[in-house]
Write a structure and sequence with these properties.
Layout lengths: L3 E4 L6 H10 L4 E4 L14 H14 L2 E6 L11 H21 L3 E4 L9 H18 L6 E5 L12 H10 L6 E6 H6 L7 H14 L5 E6 L1 E2 L10 E2 L8 H8 L9 E3 L5 E2 L2 E2 H14 L1
Parallel strand pairs: 1-2, 1-10, 2-3, 3-4, 4-5, 5-6, 6-7, 7-10
Antiparallel strand pairs: 8-9, 11-12
């Protein structure tokens, strides 16, 4: 069974996200290291770092990772915004290093008025610039497969491979797959044959060793909708079979999987607890 967890809130202190992960029974955790809807970031103190590390150790939470701000667009044809995005990623990577997080999940960006090919080249150039300007950071940019809404790039494994192939230090770029995004982008994970073909293509284009995280989310929207709307496990249009394939796939048994589903309760029980239980039951059925 793969390590399973969720994205949890740092409200009240970074260590609070670890406490929350422990409380819901998670093995792993994903956090924002700053407000994801703002550019600015308050400095992380040594005390916050120490409390975070202590909570990880005490609660035995593994594979802590972060998700970068949603404002970032490494493909922007507007140079000022692209440069601001590059600077923001550098800050995200530095903050991840402070907290000991090895991977920072990043959406490649939207090409807006540019053809997709030019946008992909801009993402690669932006990543190269980040690596040049922040040569000592240890945390790795981890490109996320997207739903492809609007002009968003990264909605296919071919897109991700093209970006990485164009970078000078492709070995420093990891990948994250989101089940909802893959489904919305047209990959029918419900079909065993299609599911297997997807991971075969992943291995051929990117190499499974580059896969560092999976976001486990069902989908509110239909196959190929290009709309990113997460739903609770087994309650959406993907359904349980795809998640059973995922959590019983021996190739993925060591890949941490993180819920990004809506918080709240159902019949007096928290959704994160319900979703984690569902995934674990699927793994042993």
């Amino acid at each position: 069974m793969p390590p399973l967890g969720a994205h949890t809130s740092i409200a009240g202190g970074y260590y609070k996200a670890i406490d929350e992960a422990h409380r819901i029974g998670a093995d792993v955790v994903q956090v924002f290291t700053k407000n994801a809807s703002q550019w600015r970031a308050k400095p992380i103190t040594d005390e916050e770092v120490a409390l975070f590390a202590k909570a990880l150790k005490e609660h035995k939470i593994a594979h802590p990772i972060s998700h970068a701000s949603y404002l970032i667009n490494l493909a922007s044809p507007i140079e000022a915004l692209r440069q601001k995005s590059i600077e923001a990623i550098i800050v995200e990577l530095q903050r991840a290093d402070q907290l000991g997080l090895p991977y920072v999940i990043v959406h490649p960006g939207a090409s807006l008025t540019l053809p997709a090919e030019e946008g992909l080249a801009l993402v690669a150039a932006s990543i190269d610039e980040i690596h040049v300007r922040a040569p000592k950071v240890k945390a790795q940019i981890t490109l996320e497969l997207t739903a492809g809404q609007g002009s968003c790039l990264g909605c296919s494994l071919a897109h991700l491979a093209e970006i990485i192939d164009q970078t000078k230090r492709g070995g420093r770029v990891a990948v994250c797959v989101d089940t909802c995004h893959a489904f919305a982008a047209g990959v029918d994970l419900r079909n065993r044959k299609t599911y297997l073909a997807f991971w075969r293509e992943f291995d051929e284009r990117l190499g499974l060793n580059r896969l560092k995280a999976i976001h486990v989310n069902d989908s509110k929207k239909e196959l190929g909708s290009r709309v990113d709307r997460h739903e609770h496990i087994g309650r959406g249009l993907i359904g349980l079979d795809a998640f059973r394939f995922l959590v019983t796939d021996k190739r993925l048994k060591d890949v941490p999987m993180y819920l990004e589903t809506k918080k709240g309760t159902h019949e007096g029980e928290e959704w994160d607890v319900i979703n984690l239980r569902t995934l674990r039951q699927l793994a042993v059925e």
